[in-house]
């Protein structure tokens, strides 16, 4: 089979690469062309554009990059038609991928969507576009599967690929001492900083996260370096603070950390599944205005983190926009970083999360479901 795959950020690159690996194990003639990152590139095929050159965040960033976005759409449309794949596999990245779904459908190319756009959280009217342009949806969260079924979308649940990635992580049995020595860190307990994988996320969230460094001198704060960023790109934020950067080892860092400050997204789920207490932090352009628009008009769910959405309760504190203040961040971090009631409660909620999410094997199941569906859809 010839697969054209589009992933637009670090998490999509990770899960798409695992899916590609599973495809190769089940389809010996698999060929790939894709938009993604380094992990997908390791699986072979042809990388058309790297996500670091295409990712934008928030309304302001979109407006400032309209010309490049239009050029990317045109490039992708022409490349898709030239490649003539058996199926277009879209991975999250709703703003770009929903448009490509429409284009592919209009040109009689099968469209499979893996890792649903978060339309259940905002702009639920887009489910009509999905029903009209996506042949099959493959979901990774039970509550979103139910959402699509209720709207008449052809949908299948295959488990969550985060569990595969965590299960396959490097150094899973490594000791704290070995982790510290291997990365040339000091011996203090660690606090992980997961500030996002896009420039906008890092610029809006990392500076406030770093305000905690001087308040917790007995801990070493370590930035989980995004795949598309160099250590030098973090230096303007770190300045003179005693903060380390560890790249390509987010899971290893989380399993060795006492706590984490995490931007909302897949990272919140990964942090919880690795049993690291966390504070969810998210700030973007617009301040109080964006906060009002988001909560009153756009966001249609009670929580912004996947942990809380899966558990249907506020298991982890969410500091969003105007609620993301230094004092609130400090107050919550102080309660989860040391042993006590709040930390124990959160870890107990994590146990329930593990039960609801199930086990590893999602990538292989998804590949099989897609291949079985292709046999029927291509008749």
TrEMBL record:
Enzyme class, first EC level, given as a word: transferase
GO molecular function annotation: lipid-A-disaccharide synthase activity
Cited InterPro entries: Glyco_trans_19
Keywords: Glycosyltransferase, Lipid A biosynthesis, Lipid biosynthesis, Lipid metabolism, Transferase
Listed EC numbers: 2.4.1.182
Keyword Hydrolase applies: no
Stored SUPFAM superfamilies: UDP-Glycosyltransferase/glycogen phosphorylase
Source organism superkingdom: Bacteria
Signal peptide segment: none
Any Pfam family: LpxB
PANTHER family given in the database record: LIPID-A-DISACCHARIDE SYNTHASE, LIPID-A-DISACCHARIDE SYNTHASE, MITOCHONDRIAL-RELATED
Protein function: Condensation of UDP-2,3-diacylglucosamine and 2,3-diacylglucosamine-1-phosphate to form lipid A disaccharide, a precursor of lipid A, a phosphorylated glycolipid that anchors the lipopolysaccharide to the outer membrane of the cell.
Entry protein name: Lipid-A-disaccharide synthase
Naturally occurring in which organism (per UniProt): Carboxylicivirga marina
Phylogenetic lineage: Bacteria, Pseudomonadati, Bacteroidota, Bacteroidia, Marinilabiliales
């Amino acid at each position: 089979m010839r697969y054209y795959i589009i992933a637009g950020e670090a998490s999509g690159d990770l899960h798409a690469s695992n899916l590609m690996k599973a495809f190769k194990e089940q389809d010996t003639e698999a060929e790939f062309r894709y938009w993604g990152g380094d992990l997908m590139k390791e699986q072979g095929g042809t990388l058309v554009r790297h996500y670091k050159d295409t990712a934008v965040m928030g309304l302001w960033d979109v407006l400032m990059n309209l010309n490049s976005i239009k050029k990317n759409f045109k490039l992708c449309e022409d490349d898709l038609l030239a490649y003539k794949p058996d199926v277009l596999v879209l991975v999250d990245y709703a703003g770009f991928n929903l448009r490509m779904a429409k284009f592919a459908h209009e040109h009689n190319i099968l469209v499979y969507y893996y890792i649903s756009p978060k339309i259940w959280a905002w702009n639920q009217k887009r489910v009509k576009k999905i029903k009209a342009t996506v042949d099959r949806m493959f979901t990774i969260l039970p509550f979103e599967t139910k959402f699509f079924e209720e709207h008449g979308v052809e949908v299948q649940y295959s488990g969550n690929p985060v569990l595969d990635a965590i299960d396959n992580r490097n150094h899973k049995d490594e000791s704290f001492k070995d982790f510290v020595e291997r990365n040339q860190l000091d011996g203090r307990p660690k606090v992980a900083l997961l500030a996002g994988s896009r420039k906008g996320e890092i610029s809006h969230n990392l500076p406030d996260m770093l305000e905690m460094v001087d308040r917790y001198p007995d801990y070493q704060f370590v930035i989980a370096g995004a795949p598309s960023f160099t250590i030098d790109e973090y230096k303007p934020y770190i300045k003179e603070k005693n903060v380390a950067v560890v790249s390509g080892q987010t899971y290893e860092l989380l399993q060795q950390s006492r706590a984490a400050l995490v931007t909302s997204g897949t990272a919140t789920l990964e942090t919880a599944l690795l049993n690291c207490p966390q504070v969810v932090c998210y700030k973007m352009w617009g301040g109080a205005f964006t906060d009002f628009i988001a909560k009153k008009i756009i966001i249609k769910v009670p929580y912004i983190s996947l942990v809380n959405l899966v558990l249907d309760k506020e298991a982890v504190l969410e500091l969003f926009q105007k609620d993301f203040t230094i004092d609130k961040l400090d107050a919550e971090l102080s309660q989860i970083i040391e042993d006590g009631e709040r930390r124990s409660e959160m870890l107990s909620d994590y146990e329930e999360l593990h039960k609801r999410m199930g086990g590893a094997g999602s990538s292989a199941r998804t590949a099989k479901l897609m291949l079985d569906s292709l046999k029927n859809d291509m008749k």
